Amino acid sequence: MYFHGAKIQNMGDDFFQRVYEVVRLIPPGRVTSYGAIARYLGTARSARMVGWAMNQSHTQPDVIPAHRVVNRNGMLTGKHFFGGENVMQELLEAEGLEIENDRILNFREQFWDPAVELA
DNA sequence: AACTTGACGGTCA
DNA sequence: ATGACCGCCAAGT
Question: pTM here?
Fold first, then answer.
């Protein structure tokens, strides 16, 4: 992968692409988790790989709504990768969600499970 | 080639 | 509720 402008990714398979496709389908104002996406894509790959895919999501030609993916407890564990201190939180709040201490309030109600919604 | 590091998550004490 | 472990597997050192 690249840093400082070098080349990048393009791993062998299309796992990352499949992750991005699911993330693109998350409706604004709703959120899902790394694990939920991993489950939807099959138990072959772990939630960690979804996290890694999100880490690389900025290399995609289009914008991936990565802020709508949080951990299983509704915590904004990836906020550090959005530049500013509270960019991820602001993006979510702009979509109507409430966050307190890096955690989405009423997470259960806002949760969007691909295994259910894309059944 | 070997060891460490995670945008993770489930289990068990 | 909290924390230690453990499986996961691509990348970085």
Answer: 0.89
